[in-house]
Design brief:
The chain has 732 residues and is mainly alpha-helical. It is built from 24 helices and 14 strands. The chain has a 3-stranded antiparallel β-sheet with strand order 9-10-11. Strands 12-13-14 form a 3-stranded antiparallel β-sheet, with no helix packed on it. The protein has a two-stranded antiparallel ribbon with strand order 1-2. Helix 2 packs antiparallel against helix 3, helix 4 runs antiparallel to helix 5 and helix 7 runs parallel beside helix 14.
Length: 732
Amino acid sequence: MTPALATAPAFDGRSAVFAGIDVCREAGLTLPEGAVRPMFEDDVWDFTDVVGLPVQLALCTRRFDFTEISDERWRLVGKELVLAMLAPQHPSVAPLPRAHRTALHLTSCAGRLDELTRFCRWLSEHGVSRLAQIDTRVCDAYMAHRRYVLDEHGAVVGEQSPATRRAAAQVVVDLVNYRELFTADSVPADLRPWGGATASAIAEMPSGRTENKTQPVDGTVLQPMLAAALFLISSLGPHAVELAQQIREADKLSARKARGLRAVHVAPVAQFTELLNEYTDTCTPLPMLAEHHVADRLAGGWAADDPLLTLATGVLARQAGVTQFEARWMDRLRDPLEEAVTSVGIKEVFARDATEITPADTSSTLPWTLPLHRLQAVALVGVVRTAAMIVLATASGMRASELMELRIGCRLPVEEPVPGLTRYRLASKVIKGQPLGGTDDEWVVIEPVYRAVELAEDLHDDRHEGALLFGRFAFSVRYKWFRNWVNSPAGHRLGLAPIPEGQVNLRRLRRTLALEMAYRPGGVLATKIHLKHIAVATTEGYASRPGGAQAELLAEVNKHESDRNLDLVLQEFRNYQQGILPSGPGARSLTEFFASIDRKLDPAAATAPKTQRSDRDVLNLLTKRAKVLHLGPANYCWFTDPSRALCLKLAGTPTADRPLVGMCDSARCPQATHHPCHRPIWAEHAERTETFLGQLGTTRKTERARLQADYDRALRVVTEIDSANTVNRESA
């Protein structure tokens, strides 16, 4: 490290450019009337009350604590740097050649301050007392410190993420870019770390042209998770609403902070006698104590065979109008308590007479839940609420920030623009990439999503219009609780399939939806929710607001769909080269196309020295055909000529630019092909049709003729698929 320089003259702690400035006013941040306004000289800038902050922004991120920087000079540097980023139009900031020209978000500024604090601490630990001592060696040493992950012995066990490395590089770059602004200390004027490269280049950040690094949720996790969530909101949801209301009513009477309770010093025998008589007269079991409190009693010396061991005496005391049950009262109250216990017993307070439902495995009916203690009841309501959140996120593609902005009343009135077509819409805000306060937007969703939001509103403790529906939440924690409950005896009792281990978060769910829509009709999501409805809803949202959030999701879907088509065409071309040919009416046309591509790849037939060999080169030749590929349930549609499309002829729309896959008769359409991947579907269809034929009576001749034709067609398709592969393999 560079030797320490002589101590600079003392300074009064005031900034030469920002002294006395109101931070929020300078940064253009609005505060409500009467709120405390952070001033530049304050060591803590509290932005908690700033109008328009996203719900997602954590409370700790809204408070900038400069006291973490111990050196007063560097603390002043931190304040000047952060305010310069919040107020780039300030007369002292705007002339700086490398300063930001647009204000950074509070989240970004909080991250910069955190890294600056970490850098200052590291400098102090390594004997650097002035920013003027920083040279390229110090910069390289700090980058090396932030690049690697060390174990407890100081051995390198991995590398930090590119984002962490970029933050480390950015703090040095910021100190260089704003050095003319700083009053108390600054880096040397000739410091040019890493040759003037950007922080992203120094951190080796991906360029953004590579594949999306967010992976979809694994199908083995998604299927049971979504099935459980849909079951909970449909079968348990209405009962959970009643349970939540019971909890609220019980808290009014028996919670420790309930109104009307009083503290007494003498055993309230008369009140307890009257209360116990009510229990016995109505044959109502006495409230049971939760298991952890029973364990506390046993540890405190209670006998395991005490008949009052599991009795919730505190609940009884509050029902009798007393704040708490005192142990010294037990001698006088034990006899009437034991008599009541003998008469009516002890039982959990909530869901004692639960309604019967049909479980997920459609076995015999059973109560929707077993009796519950209060904490168990609250947890179950939370699990159902999380189920609504999972369905909403999975089938709408909303980001975390957009979910957190949902409020009571976000369900817009159901519309029916044409008979039979119902449109469900949600109102929220887009936060990502938007100015402070976000931008109002609407999501066109499917009915299960709309009902999930309705359930979440019914479960809300404060249902006044405009209250946050979910507020700020940690989805990973809530999902863990949800999975644990589904995998517990409670979930097994309801016939729910266990959810295996696997990472699930909102980003993965959004990417899963995009991929499932792009790869329909074979997606895992289609087993529980009709993907066509999701695609239609997303398209409507795109059309109604071209610049909205659903437009971004649909653009992502289209990108995945294009990639999928290229992969499928390349796979079928490789199959052609190996002698695995398509069948169906359009097989000849597709085979001729593949043959023409194959000739172009033949080195002997090349007219120029360059030959196309790599997959990328082959894909360039196949791209045009990939653009006209559409997936049917049991075929590929090569929509090259709308005038030849059988579906359009049947529908009377010969000029349409997309096929009507739902009306496809692939056994007769000249642009449809069948491939080995479609054989199981046709074989299963033939088997089921044969079963139906065997069950028809002799008098149902018309139905028999129709099914027989359907059966013969399915067998013909299966035979053609087998023949195409067998003949070509034998010739090969």
